[in-house]
Write a structure and sequence with these properties.
The chain is mostly helical and 144 residues long. It has one domain (2-139). It contains four helices and no strands. It has helices spanning 3-33, 39-66, 70-89, 99-136.
């Protein structure tokens, strides 16, 4: 069971990367609204990070499945489905010509995903601390 804290640490790093990517996208849309970015800059910035975000979330989901954390897998499955659905329909990239029509919807979607990842961060950090405490205070490893 000594590998469990390391596994939760990997989950934490993946989650922090997802929080960072979504926060970056949300700030980029906010900068577009405040007229600090033009639509071309926004679309080039967002389109460079959207596919790595989807792949990272997919790896996150698969890692939960492969390690047997079924409840966590079921928790991260709906955003994975949402990402996959957007990717399959070709709606994952930001279009330069249509960005002002969809800025509020895209910003709201990023904010919801950001909130989801922050809640997931709390769950993961709690599980990490519990696994560390269980590894340190395991009765079988104490030898008097």
């Amino acid at each position: 069971m000594a590998w469990l804290p390391l596994l939760w640490l990997i989950f934490l790093i993946l989650n922090l990367a997802l929080v960072g990517l979504n926060f970056y996208q949300f700030l980029s849309f906010s900068d577009l609204e405040a007229d600090y970015l033009n639509p071309y800059e926004l679309s080039s910035r967002i389109n460079h990070v959207i596919v790595p975000e989807y792949l990272l979330h997919g790896a996150f989901c698969i890692l939960f499945l492969m390690t047997g954390h079924w409840l966590m897998f079921l928790l991260v499955l709906p955003p994975s489905y949402y990402n996959l659905k957007r990717y399959m329909k070709g709606q994952h990239l930001v279009d330069v010509t249509e960005v002002f029509k969809a800025v509020m919807a895209e910003k709201r979607a990023r904010l919801i995903k950001l909130g989801f990842y922050v809640v997931l961060f709390g769950i993961i950090i709690t599980r990490l601390m519990l696994s560390v405490l269980n590894a340190v205070f395991d009765d079988e490893s104490i030898s008097w």
